[in-house]
TrEMBL record:
This is Flavin reductase family protein. The lineage of its organism: Bacteria, Bacillati, Bacillota, Clostridia, Eubacteriales. GO terms for molecular function: FMN binding; oxidoreductase activity, acting on the CH-NH group of donors, NAD or NADP as acceptor. Pfam families: Flavin_Reduct. Keywords: Flavoprotein. It comes from Candidatus Faecalibacterium faecipullorum. It comes from the Bacteria. InterPro entries: Flavin_Rdtase-like_dom, Flavoredoxin, Split_barrel_FMN-bd. Residues 9-156 form the Flavin reductase like domain. Its cofactor is FMN. Belongs to the flavoredoxin family.
Length: 190
């Protein structure tokens, strides 16, 4: 039996991401739980950020940010960057992390410790209520070569990425299938 609750944003688990923004002289990180893919061509993502957050103003001013996918090793940093403000502390320095300029957007910092970074340029913003949605074109991707197989194919399962669900950070588990496996025809044995 199911209970009927009032409307709530209960779409979980989600990928927690570390969004880097600001400048190379004063880089900042913010943890964002509301991030998603919105379009394939052109490649676009969205992030939702409260206007009172320090990073919101940095992104509005520059029109640039980077979505850095965190690993299990970065889980503590993900949590810490979600509760500390860049107004008061240099998050990169406090956590011993390293900012690097993007390849597609050199003026925007990226997180060196992240195995995969999406460099983004804001295309549109939508005020939604408690948050403003930044729709952004992915202008480039920085991919750790350790995540590539011998054919150059991206193997994100090697990264040890994490998920966030109802106040808990979780390691991603075992593979259940691949795209299209539910309809794939079995080969007949000769």
């Amino acid at each position: 039996m199911k209970q009927s609750w009032k409307g709530a944003a209960l779409l979980n688990p989600v990928p927690p991401v570390l969004v880097s923004c600001g400048s190379m002289e004063r880089p900042n990180l913010i943890t964002v739980g509301w991030c998603g893919t919105v379009c394939t061509h052109p490649a676009m993502v969205s992030v939702s950020i409260r206007p009172e957050r320090y990073s919101y103003g940095l992104i509005k001013a520059s029109g640039l940010f980077a979505v850095n996918l965190p690993t299990e090793a970065l889980a503590r940093a993900v949590d810490w960057c979600g509760v500390k403000s860049g107004r008061e502390v240099d998050k990169f320095a406090a956590l011993g992390l390293h900012a690097e300029p993007g390849a597609a957007n050199p003026g925007c910092p990226t997180l060196a410790e992240s195995p995969l970074t999406l460099e983004c340029r804001v295309a549109q913003t939508l005020p939604l209520g408690s948050h403003e949605l930044f729709l952004a074109e992915v202008t480039g991707c920085l991919v750790d070569e350790a995540l590539l197989d011998e054919k150059g194919r991206l193997c994100l399962d090697k990264a040890g990425l994490i998920a966030y669900s109802h106040g808990e950070y979780r390691a991603l588990g075992r593979r259940l299938g691949t795209f299209g496996w539910s309809v794939k025809k079995k080969r007949r044995k000769p």
